[in-house]
Sequence to fold (194 residues):
Amino acid sequence: MRIAILALQGAFMEHEQMLERLGVSFFEVRQRKDIEQAFDGLIIPGGESTVQGKLLRELDLFESLKMKIADGVPVFGTCAGLLLLAKEIKNDDRLHFAVMNITAIRNAYGRQLGSFYTESEFKGIGKIPMTFIRAPYIEAVYANTEVLATVNGKIVAARENNILVTAFHPELNRDLSVHRYFMEMIKECGTIHL
Ligand code: GLN
Fold:
């Protein structure tokens, strides 16, 4: 199995460390030629969704990655990655891949609760650590989207077919279970190697 990690901006190195600990091979996506090689899954890290969205377009990565995701390549978006995948962002007109049937709210926790840590249930895993940094949450899910975790009544993790998103950053804690969950999801979706 080989994972592509979008490495334009944000917390991509932390995802790499998680995959290293899991013994899963990966490579960084920084330019067009990087995605000419085969991969079984894609990770979109946290950071700034607007910056990543702009760079994806400028570097001519946007259309090919969007097509791969629409074709069923498993993708895991954390925080800004969630925003890049959402079909609707309530407080931002700029949409990006817009492939997942969720309505997200950007910087949803306001200034005071901008960043926080908690532990909560993740469906199929149990209680896990969750670190939020100027995070979005999901206001509503549609179609095939399944809610996987909530914190204080707000949806913070969801899955729709080949797409997994978390509003929090599992890569910033020691716990590997969400990354493991994504690896299982890839196996379920079948090895694609596009
Ligand atoms: N606030 C960022 C955004 O709107 C997301 C924050 C994060 O990825 N930690 O894109």
The chain has a mean pLDDT of 95. The pocket of glutamine is lined by residues 46-49, 79-80, 83, 106-107, 133-135 (CB under 6 Å). The radius of gyration is 15 Å. The CA atoms of residues 5 and 43 lie 5 Å apart.
